[in-house]
Design brief:
It is a single chain. The chain is mainly beta. The chain has one domain: Jelly Rolls (Sandwich). Helix content is about 10%, strand content about 45%. The strands form 4 sheets. An 8-stranded antiparallel beta sheet has the order 1-19-16-21-14-13-12-22, with no helix packed on it. The N and C termini lie far apart (about 90 Å).
Amino acid sequence: MPVLIKRLSILLTIVIFNCTPIAEVLPPQDSSEIPKQALTMNFNSQSPVFSETLMPGEIADTDIEHIAIIGPYSHLDSLTPGFDDIFIFLKGTGNLIAEDTSFAIVPESIGLPLSVPTVTLEVSEGNTLHYVHIQKKLSAQDQIDLKRYPTENRHTIYFRSFEECTAYTEKIKSPNTVSRTVLPKDHIPRVAQGTVVTMGPDAVGAHEHPMLDQLFLGLGQNDVTVFADDKSIAFKEFEILHIPIGASHWVTVDEGKIMNYQWMDFFLTKKGEEWLKTHKQTEDY
C-alpha cells in the first residue's frame, strides 16, 4: 500500500505540473509603457523612395507609413478602396497632384485625397520630401455615416498648411499655447487631428479620454516630456507615440525648449466625437 500511494503521489505531481497554464511560466509583459518610434530621417537608399511602417498594430484598422522621396522623382500612389487616406507632410517640399489640380507642399501641411483613385507626389532635384501616410479602414457604420457628411468634405481635395488652420483653446492649456484643428470632424469618420505649439516653460494639463485612441507626432524642434499615468518619456521631433487608451496624460516643456506636436484622435464610436466640443474656437472667447 505505501508503494501504491507513493506512485499515485508522483503521478498526481506530474499531472498538476503539466496542467500549469503557459501564461504562468512566461515572463510578465509590461503593457503600461508608452509606445514610441523614431522616424528614420537619415538613411542610405539606392531607391528614390524609402518607406517604413510606423506603430504597427497600435491603432485598430489603421496602417501608418513614413515615406521619403528623393528628388528628382515623381511617385504615383494608388489609394486603396475601402480606406481613407491622410498625408502629413513633415519636411521638404514638392507638389501633390490629384487629377488636374496641383498643391504646393510645404513642411507641416496636410492633404486628404478622398475623391481620387491616385495621387502623384513630385519632388525636384536636391530635395527630399518626408511624409506620413495614414490609411484608415472604413467600417460598415462609417460607410453609413458618410452619407450625412457635407458634400464638399468628401468630393474636393482638402489641403492645408497647419499655420492656416483654425485656432482653438482648451481649459487644460495656458494662454501662451497655440492650438489648431488641422483635420476637423466629418471629413474622415471617427478621426480628427490638431497641433499644439508653445515655448517653455509650459504644459498641457492632465486629462484622459477613454473614448478614443490617440497618437502624438513630433513636429520640427519638438522637445517635451510626455506623462501617462505613472510613466514618462522624452518626446522629440520626428517621433511618434501612442497614448495608452484611457490613461491620464499630460505634457511639459522646459524653459528654452519648444512644444510642437500633432495629436491624432481615432474615436472608437461616432458618439465619442462629442469630446471635440471641449475645443473652443479662438473667436468664441
